[in-house]
Amino acid sequence: MKAQSGVCAEPNLHGLTLFCNVMTDDVDSVRRKLARVPAIIAELDDRFSESMLNGFVAIGADYWDVVYPERKPIYLHRFPELQQADREAPRQPVDLLLQIRSDRFDANYLAGRAVLGWLGYDIEVVEQLRTFRYLDGRDLSGFIDAPDNPRGLRKRNVALLDAAAEPEFADGSYLLLQKFRHDLRHWDELGSARQEQLMGRDKVTGERLPEADIEGVTHASKTRLVDDQEQPIPLLRQNMPWGDLREQGLLALYFTQHPKAVTQWLKQRYYEDEQGHYDPLLDYTQAVNNASFFVPSVAFLNRHSCPLQGDLIQDSSLPE
């Protein structure tokens, strides 16, 4: 078994994310083309080896039953309903999600052209989003993004399914996506001291503030990666900022082997607890696009493809 390269990859400088819908009823063609995508990315990674190029294709929860009706990941469902007061996360499902990341924007662009050229008229790009690394891995809020993210081999342990759990989908990953749009003008008006109080972390180091120095509920307390029984929630965040000087935000990708736990983690951010507290950061950012996917292993895509003689990457327009 082998996971797609973009799931557990190290952070990159640039990202290109494509939200796509399938425009054909020819399921065999779609399966065949999806199976080739990881190989295209691998070939281009070899070509641009210094850029650490990686990527993945994910299948939307609503589209899975169309393209792979024989078997479905147990916990693959639509993105959960999250709405209370003025806090909401509206669903905007798409059939496919394609992401390419590397340390070179031009390599991402060429890889995007190659993948879209291979998929051809079978898909339509609904939205494309260019993301980037900000400073030393910070969100545009100025704080280190996901400072408690797993590192090294632990990424695989939290993000990827093992053969014992769901044998058919081993080395695949459940993916929940949120595209946040930040209100940086109001955020910046708070000043660093108030921002640290809301985040519950030091703005420079990312370390948690001592409890004695905190007033009220914090983002850090509402996003603790433990469940009601104080058991760790398996979650790998591959987040990257997006935007320009008019609008900006964060593309949050939550990879997990246990999406039910991540759904509960999201709910504790959006819904008030018994004391009326929710994640205070949600007063300064809104998730405008939310969807759930499954990222199959390379073996699964190949196993369920319908190869035709002579399937090759059509990249004659790309420079050698």
SSE blueprint:
Layout: E1 14-22, H1 27-47, E2 54-60, H2 61-67, E3 83-84, E4 87-88, E5 96-102, H3 105-119, E6 123-132, H4 154-159, E7 173-182, H5 184-190, H6 192-199, H7 219-222, E8 236-237, E9 240-243, E10 248-256, H8 259-270, E11 285-295, H9 298-303
Give an overview in words.
- α1 packs antiparallel against α3.
- 27% of the residues lie in helices and 23% in strands.
- A hairpin with a 4-residue loop joins β9 and β10.
- It has one domain.
- It is α+β, with helices and mostly antiparallel strands and 320 residues long.
- Strands 1, 2, 5, 6, 7, 8, 9, 10 and 11 form a 9-stranded antiparallel beta sheet that branches. Strands 3-4 form a two-stranded antiparallel ribbon.
Short description:
This protein has 320 residues and is an alpha+beta fold.
